[in-house]
Design goal:
Blueprint lengths: L2 H11 L1 H33 L2 H31 L5 H33 L2 H9 L3 H8 L7 H10 L1 H29 L3 H44 L1
Length: 235
């Protein structure tokens, strides 16, 4: 299994359903994030507390990313398992699991952001070691808190790969954003046009990133289960 190639094929094969999920779930989160951030930036510009703006932006962005990954992870898993109506299952998983992931995310993201602001490296380590937790919660059908140990073990074992995937995703998002920005400003300098173009590009891109991490997590989880089963048989 080659998750990167599989991700491209999966995205192309299910693009209508994935974009529907993204439009219904990701787009509202992006609107809330941008409006909230603009208000916070306004307040920090008056008070001069720019550190607060940076902390809040990172906190809110990571928290939203954790939550909106749920339906895409479920959609991929349902498709891999041959279940009928994976789109309905994805919406149901979001309704059932978003609150528990949100509560976990508050603690996780707060720890990551604090580590980033104070010492940087501890925050990055926490981000990478537990980044797969929401995906494992969907795959295992368990609370995120019960997946922490598995996530940490997989995070340690695949630390370099997770880092590379996050850098790849960030690079792709940056490149597409730059191309989109220059394309729009070549036609118009309207803030609204630039703003909505950036939102549209993120709505289109996010499902692919979620699929990529889901397929890699599924692969690593399957490998881990096989190793545990073989050790159990030997024992």
């Amino acid at each position: 299994m080659k998750p990167l190639k599989e991700s491209v094929q999966f995205y192309a094969r299910n693009i209508e359903s994935l974009l529907l999920l993204s439009a219904v779930i990701v787009l509202p989160f992006l609107f809330v994030h941008n409006m909230t951030l603009n208000y916070v930036n306004f307040l920090t510009a008056i008070t001069g507390a720019k550190v607060v703006s940076g902390f809040f932006n990172l906190f809110l962005l990571l928290l939203f990313l954790l939550v909106v990954q749920i339906p895409f992870a479920q959609y991929v898993i349902s498709d891999l398992e041959g279940e009928e109506r994976p789109l309905r299952k994805a919406f149901r998983a979001f309704a059932e699991r978003s609150f528990s992931v949100f509560m976990f995310g508050i603690v996780y993201v707060l720890a990551v952001c604090t580590g980033m602001l104070l010492f940087v490296i501890p925050g990055l380590l926490l981000l990478l070691l537990f980044y797969l937790t929401p995906y494992l919660a969907v795959m295992k059908g368990r609370s995120p808190w019960k997946c922490l140990r598995t996530a940490m073990e997989m995070g340690k074992k695949h630390f370099v790969q997770i880092t590379g995937l996050l850098l790849l995703a960030s690079g792709i998002e940056w490149a597409i954003s730059v191309v989109g920005l220059y394309s729009v400003t070549f036609i118009t300098t309207s803030f609204g046009a630039v703003f909505f173009t950036q939102l549209l590009l993120q709505v289109i891109l996010f499902p692919f990133i979620a699929i990529l991490f889901t397929l890699y997590t599924h692969k690593w989880s399957a490998e881990r289960d096989r190793v545990e089963d073989s050790l159990g048989l030997e024992g």
